Amino acid sequence: MLSYCIIDDDPVCRRMLENIIEDSALGKVVESNAGGQYGIESVLTTQPDVVLIDLLMPEIDGLGMIAELTNREFQGKFVMISQIDNKEMVGEAYKTGVEFFIHKPINNVEVEAVLKNVKDQLKLNRSVDEIKRSLAGLERLSPLSSAPVKEVQTVRDIVQYILMDIGLLGEAGSKDMAIAVEILMEQEMSIADFPSLKDLYGMIAVKNNPAMNKLELNREIKAIEQRLRRAVLAALTNLASLGLIDYSNPKFEHYAPLLFDFQDVRMKMSELEREGSQSRVKVNVKKFLQVLYIETLEKLKQK
């Protein structure tokens, strides 16, 4: 729920805006006052998502208040309230950080439309910020070509290098992936001979713990299946997020079409843009493991 602060020296205008916000379920008004220095301090104290602020006020005008709030690192959105249609003042308002306007006299339809647009923009901004934070570790890694593969010594090292590139090292299923590739390497599997997922999960489980009984083995196979599916979905999410931020990123360009059907990557990107939408993408774990195996073979040849 969005929080609002209303700053206007006209108490009738403030009350009308409060009623519209509350009646339209647009959020909660956490502060309402006539402005001035008290108005500035009230915004900094309550930290609302949105400040609705009058342009012309006696002590400090709206532009002055916005400038001070911005200088004091307030991060919320501003909506300017004004009955003046002056292009120069509108231009100044944009320069100080105003992106939306509500005109006096107050109109319910306009207020609802403007505040819904503000809500949509905040939602998009937060979604992008969340994506950036989740990829911060991934983005700190060097580009695809910068890590010298020749320094890698083992199959496990190569798999971990690839998984690090797509942000999977922290996933529980990453260890299962490394073991799967080691098993395939030991048996010198070709793609034509690639085992079923159930058989591969069984081999991973036995390598993890050869002393398991049949019941324990079945439980571990199901656990491996879940871990790997979650890990592959996380890889798809990481790459789709990376594509949203930078479509030309070398990791995205290399791994997205290699590990996944690109229509699934595009679908996941669309879902991330529509924050909160239920995912309809079904990941292909077998294809992911096959590609991981082939990539590891290719990098071994480069040693």
Question: What are the defining features of this structure?
Answer:
5-stranded parallel β-sheet, 13 helices, 303 residues, elongated
Write the layout of secondary structure elements.
Layout: E1 3-7, H1 11-23, E2 28-33, H2 36-46, E3 50-54, H3 62-71, E4 77-82, H4 87-95, E5 100-103, H5 108-134, H6 136-140, H7 155-165, H8 173-186, H9 197-208, H10 214-245, H11 250-259, H12 262-273, H13 285-301
Parallel strand pairs: 1-2, 1-3, 3-4, 4-5
Commentary on this structure:
By secondary structure, this protein is an alpha/beta fold. Helices cover 60% and strands 9% of the residues. It has a five-stranded parallel β-sheet with strand order 2-1-3-4-5. Helix 5 crosses helix 10. The longest helix has 32 residues.
**Beta-strand residue percentage:** 5-15%
> What structural class results from the helix and strand content?
alpha/beta
> Which strand order spans the largest sheet, edge to edge or round the barrel?
2-1-3-4-5
Average pLDDT for all residues? 85
How far from one another are the termini? 55 Å
Poorly predicted tracts of residues: 139-150
The helix tally amounts to 13
Largest sheet: 5 strands, parallel
Q: Please write the string of helix (H) and strand (E) elements.
A: EHEHEHEHEHHHHHHHHH
Question: What is the CA-atom radius of gyration, in angstroms?
Answer: 27 Å
What is the number of strand segments?
5
Q: Tell the overall outline.
A: elongated
- Helix % is 55-70%
